[in-house]
Each structure stands twice: as structure tokens, then as C-alpha cells.
Fold each of these.
Amino acid sequence: MYWSYEYPDQAGLTFDSNLIQDKDLKPGQKRLLDVDNPLVVPVGATIRVLVTGTDVIHSWFIPSFGVQEYAVIGRLNETWMQVEREGTITANATRSAASITVSCRSR
């Protein structure tokens, strides 16, 4: 299970964020929560999030930010968020999860 991310304002940077498989978990990593490539977002900027699906309906959900959007096949849904402080939080989804690292600079 994975999410694909694109940063169109960062020279078209794209990557996939895959859940770490149980057999590959290292000490301290959380089952069904840790990913190989976390999403990194800047602090203090309004972040526009566009979500779409390719197979089934998914829910991209970050409870601590109060953000939830559905990824639906053939539809482009939009939401936004603004992060106020640095840290690592967990984003939940109907079928997968992801870690998000919040930093002062985008990568």
C-alpha cells in the first residue's frame, strides 16, 4: 500500500511513500504506520492538497491537522492545511497510513 506525492512547485519532484512491510520493520518503527519515504511539508506555509484515486476510494486523513479528503477514481478533490510547528505526525488512511515530517524547509 502506498501514496504517490508530487511537489509541482519544486521542479516536479515526485515519489511514492510505501508502508514498511512487517518483515522489514526496524526497532522503534510502527507496524502499519511507518513508511519508506515520508512526506515533508514546510512550517508556516499554506499547503494545497489535491487528491485522486486509481483503484478504490481511499481517505487521506491527518487527525492532528483536522484534514481529511477522499481519493476517488476519476475525481480530483482539493483541501489545504497550514502547519504551525515542527514534528513528525501520522496520517491515517482507509487502506494505508503514512508518516509526515514537518520541517522549516521543504526537501
Amino acid sequence: MSRQIDFAGKSGTTYRYTALEEDRFLPPAGANFVIAEETPEGARLVYAGETDNLANQTWRAKLEAARKKHPEAKVLTRLNVTRAIREAERSDLIAQHEPPMNRENRENRENREGRENRA
């Protein structure tokens, strides 16, 4: 996978992500992250997320889950300090690419909420 990859959002905005070297020092800064796999058509988003502290490695659990179905999946990051910007970017990418892990999370949340409403 290339060192940098551009992903377009539904809005038409292009976001440049950089491949993360998992063993390097990570800044304690807010960031968006995507988990992607290489396909013949190019990089395919598996998951889009955001964190307020990249160094906490909250993305690692999502990467491990992604690699169960997508063994070659890689994590890429884009620093964004402001939460509102991170959330908007994440939503824009999800709307355009419909990553399978985001869709599964949404469906699981909707199922839980439906059960709670019936209780």
C-alpha cells in the first residue's frame, strides 16, 4: 500500500491519509484513522474512525478485528485536532464508502436499541 492515499468523501472533499508504522512513536494528538485493504481497483475502506489521542492506540482493536476478515488491512491516519472536524470527516467518508465494519457497528447498535425499546 502506498505511503499516502487520498480518499474522497461524499461531499467531494479529498482527505490525504498516511500509512501508520505501527511500531513508531505516535503523537498524543487527535486524528482520523481509516483501516483499508489494497484491491485491484485501489484502496478500499474497511473502517473509518477518529480518536482524540492517537498515542492511546484505540484504533488497534479495530485493526485486529478487521484483520480477521481482511488479513492485509492497514491503518492510515490524518491528524485533526478539532473533534467537530474529525467527526465531520469521518461521516463524510462513511457516507461515500460505506465501510463494512462501520455498517456492522451501526446495525449492531440499532439492534440493541430496538431490544431496549421493547423491554
Amino acid sequence: MTKAAVWVRVSTSHQVTDNQVPDLEKFAAHHGYEIAERYELSESAWNGGKDGGEYRATLKQAMDDAYRGEFEVLVVWALDRLTREGAEGLLRILREFRERGCSVVSVQEAWLNTAPQIQDVMVSFAGWMAEQESNRRSERIKAGLARRKAEGKASGRSPFLDGARTTSRGRPMAMYEHGSDERLSPSARER
């Protein structure tokens, strides 16, 4: 049986890994992997988590364990559980695991479970597609905000949060023009 490790990550301590673990275990059993190691963490993978913290330390531990031969395959539920650093960051991590004699496979992205050369092409393409979708989403949001502004409608967060009138940055609304974060002069606040 091939020794494997599973990588389980949720973004906050308020989330649970219950959605990932059963799928990881089924995937491992189906492919004849013996789970020798588990890496579970609850911290954002975006930019390595706060100060690199738990995420970076766990990633380093997994790479060190792979180098020592404690497992040959790292099973992830989805690539965004491993990193949020885009295609370049993911390619770097995949290559570092490969250099340690370990392949990375994904439950959600079956296309990853292939030869390393094809992996690199597919990861690059998937990263490009994700970046394009992010750009389109941003363009749609900006267009919607511009349309609402042209129509004279408010946009952004509701000025009423928990019954208190606040700006989108959580500041008291009385000190700001409605719908903006520009401070009012003391005389304007009294109007």
C-alpha cells in the first residue's frame, strides 16, 4: 500500500473540517493509499496566514515529512485548501513536493492526478482562468457601482448595522456625508 498524507484546511476556527475528511478518506481508500499522516489546520492560506503562522509551519512540516519518506502522496480536498497564492505559488509547492519524492493529488480536481508535466500546464491554465474570472467579477462589480452612482442610488454596505448608523468602515454616520467616508465639518454635522 502507498503511504499517503491528507491535508485538511479550513480558513477560520469557526469552520469545521467535516466536509473534507470523509471525501479524503474515501479517495485514499479507493486509490489504495494508507493514511500515514494528517495535517489539519484552521488558518487562511492567503499570503501564508497571519504572519506565516500555523499555515507556513504546517506546510514546512509536511514537506520535511515527505522528504523523510513518511509518505509518497499528499491528498488534498481541493487545491485552494493547499494554497491561495495563485498558479505560481501552487506550481512552486507542487514542485517542492515532487523534489521530495511526493506527488500531490486532489479529490476535487481530477485533472491534477496526472503526469508532472501535464500537471504544470493544467495548473497554469487553471490559474489563468481563475485570474480572468476574478477580473471579470471585479469589472462587473465596478460597472454595477458606477450605474448605481449615475442613478443616484446608494451603494455598498447598508448604513444600518445593529441599529446604529455607520459608514462602510464602521464609523458613526453622523460624522460623514451619507454614502461616503468624507468627514463633515462640525457645523455640517449639526444640520
